[in-house]
């Protein structure tokens, strides 16, 4: 059975300054994924249920400053990010499921891709040729507490030898050299 807190979309690379574990979600996908949160925010703004649903349906593919403000409010109220599990089927090896932080909802309603960092892309064996990925929101405290083992930085070191770097995360060569020197000295 599908969950209301999961989604799937085509991926793209996140450009501009960002942290390796952050992702940006598309507008219409977020309207569905955060539906209950959005309706709750609209109720607080004195919308009736029917008005709130009609507003959300109408603005699923049309930009709305109010809806943009609500998306920012949801992220702000969650502590600056909404945590989620991110994976690409099949999830067979270490790093193929990772904890990510949703930090932004894209306001371009024509961009329907989930954008994430190229630094964690190797773990998912993705190459931006139309690959799609799954996202599941972490809504409870117990899920939040268990997410630490799925954070991307847990995939930096390899399992085959001491101080070996895995191919699950891409680091600039100067960073790898510095870390390697530190480990071996």
What does this structure look like?
Helix content is 31%, strand content 19%. It has six helices and six strands, in the order ββααααββββαα. The protein has helices at residues 27-33, 35-44, 49-58, 65-77, 141-146, 173-184, and strands at residues 6-13, 22-25, 82-87, 97-105, 114-116, 132-137. Helix 2 (35-44) crosses helix 3 and helix 2 (35-44) packs across helix 4. The radius of gyration is 18 Å and the shape is globular.
Brief descriptors of the model:
alpha/beta; single chain; 6 helices; 185 residues; 19% strand; 6 strands; 6-stranded mixed barrel
Q: Quick one: how many beta strands?
A: 6
Shape: globular
Sheet with most strands: strand arrangement: 1-5-2-4-3-6
Helix content: 25-40%
Largest sheet descriptor: 6 strands, mixed, barrel
Mean pLDDT: 82
> Which structural category do the helix and sheet elements fall into?
alpha/beta
Outline:
The protein has 185 residues and is α/β, with parallel strands linked by helices. The chain has helices spanning 27-33, 35-44, 49-58, 65-77, 141-146, 173-184; strands spanning 6-13, 22-25, 82-87, 97-105, 114-116, 132-137. 31% of the residues lie in helices and 19% in strands.
